[in-house]
Amino acid sequence: MKIAVYTIALNEEKFVERWFNSVREEADLVLIADTGSTDRTVEIAKSLGIEVHSIAVRPWRFDVARNVSLALIPEDVDYCIQLDMDEVLRPGWRAELEKALEAGATRPRYEYIWSWNSNGTPAYEFSGSKIHSRFGYVWKHAIHELPTADRIQEVYFETKIVMEHHPDSAKSRSQYLPLLELDAKENPHDDRSAFYLAREYYFQGRPAESIVEFKRYLALASSWWPPERATAMRFLAKLEPESTEVWLRLAIDQAPGRREALVDLANHFHLQQMWQESLLFAELALAITEKPLDYACEADPWGFLPYDLAAIANHNLQEPTKALRYGSKALELATPEHAERLENNLAFYVS
């Protein structure tokens, strides 16, 4: 079996060595397609023994760059791992890919930790899809690109591989919106393009455009995945505060068995001081005990928040024993920035 780890890079000198050290013992080939670095990225990479190619993509788009980097990988490679410079692999991944190869998999899946709590525990994690067979895949989308099966029958395989994301907070998002607008223009019937554009409008503080695009997304025939549709409705609940409850109830109906919208609605009633309703939806969320491993699954509903909401609601409903029980669990799951408040709450419930 041969495995290649590949990526594109631009001014990543502070990440090159960490990135390389996470794969050097288990990869057969480590390849960087440098897109015009002006720092020491190329120098450091070559000194470590990494195969470096200089490429130019103008005008810039991620899918073209990814496909160029993929084309540089030799034909006899079995699996390709697209590992960004701000990502690392935990040791032991090669043995997992050997199992995948024996099973005839073209798309091994893995655990992807995208963000972290302040205490160092995983916050947002889901099943990743950037490991693929050498042939039969092409990268699509100008941004938020992904490898897409090209005239092959995909075979998935669940592995125990863990990929960690440690982002550079100093990096600009300035190129995101123009590329997302381009992608939506190129793919007007693609639900993924519409969803990401609507979300970026929200992040950029352009609510009117975000509302239009989220509603366009929901109307698309290709928009079929319930968890993502529910996420769009949850965004609309924030964007149209006069219809918050309506959108959140629609989100709950859209994707039953998930915590996100239930916790949002519990918090909505908490802000309205409607304690019975807040408790109801917090407890409905807590009754869901199987955490889905997809990118629509968010961290807060699986942390202290639903327990905290249930504790506060029970306190206001004159149920001190229940408030104490839920408050204790909230403190147990607390991240450092919330610990002091939850400790004070718990002492108050005790008294």
The biggest beta sheet is recorded as: 5 strands, mixed
Number of distinct helices: 14
Q: Report the uncertain regions.
A: none
Q: What is the end-to-end distance?
A: 64 Å
Rounded mean pLDDT is 97
Strand content: 15-25%
- Secondary-structure content class: alpha/beta
The level of helicity is 40-55%
DSSP strand count: 11
Instruction: Sketch the topology as an H/E string, one letter per element.
Output: EHEHEHEEHEEEEEEHHHHHHHHHH
Word description of this protein:
The protein has 351 residues and is an alpha/beta fold. It has 14 helices and eleven strands. Strands 3-2-1-4-8 form a five-stranded mixed beta sheet, sandwiched between helices. It has a four-stranded mixed beta sheet with strand order 5-11-6-7. Helix 7 packs antiparallel against helix 8 and helix 11 packs antiparallel against helix 12. The longest helix is centred in the last third of the chain and has 15 residues. The model has no long low-confidence stretch (mean pLDDT 97).
